[in-house]
Amino acid sequence: PSRPAAALLSFAALLLLPVLIESVFSISFFLPVNTRKCLREEIHKDVLVTGEYEISEQANTKTNLKITDSSSHTLYSKEDATKGKFAFTTEDYDMFEACFESKSPMGTGRVPDQLVNLDMKHGVEAKNYEEIAKVEKLKPLEVELRRLEDLSESIVNDFAYMKKREEEMRDTNESTNTRVLYFSIFSMCCLIGLATWQVFYLRRFFKAKKLIE
């Protein structure tokens, strides 16, 4: 591509770098034998999620991987997992959980911890633009423009979701304030009514005792 176009793409990529960082989830940790560790992440609706995992092998140890949503629907499951890939598309904004469970008849303390590497990508980063370029016969500049277009759309969707959440929270606050106001007025009326009844009751009581005329 020409220098102005390349500079424009570089500048746009720099602006969208935070989005790229947020859409990539990579972690490594040690999994003790006969234990279960879970990782959670919130992901928007209609988002492609891909992942790759690798678990170090240990004798007499079986490690299971299971990915579920907040409703306990299984999105990916693999028994005796060692190395592999997974992919799914979210149906709604939800909290997703990836759990690694190690099982061994040897007992804890006798088997070394397993090293687990997990790389998860979602949104734009999960798309294979090289494959898209081959299928649609796109030039390198067209591929970058497609990538930036998808990033821009992702940002717009994020802002739209944030705006929707802000509107929902504002409506909830306004509804709560209205209910509190009505409850306060009702409480005030009850207190005034109770105080008035108490004054008349005491007045009749004192008159009955001939303490006042």
From TrEMBL:
- Which Pfam families does this UniProt record tie to the protein? EMP24_GP25L (PF01105)
Membrane topology according to the record? Single-pass type I membrane protein
Q: Which residues form the signal peptide?
A: 1-26
Give the record's keywords alphabetically.
Endoplasmic reticulum, Membrane, Signal, Transmembrane, Transmembrane helix
Cellular location(s): Endoplasmic reticulum membrane; Membrane
**Which cellular components does GO assign to this protein?**
endoplasmic reticulum membrane
Recorded hits in InterPro entries, A to Z, give:
Emp24-like, GOLD_dom
What top-level branch of life does the organism fall under? Eukaryota
Q: What is its main location?
A: endoplasmic reticulum
GOLD domain span: 36-187
Q: Locate the transmembrane regions by residue number.
A: 180-202
Q: What family is it from?
A: Belongs to the EMP24/GP25L family.
The protein's name in its UniProt record? GOLD domain-containing protein
Q: What is the lineage of its organism?
A: Eukaryota, Metazoa, Chordata, Craniata, Vertebrata
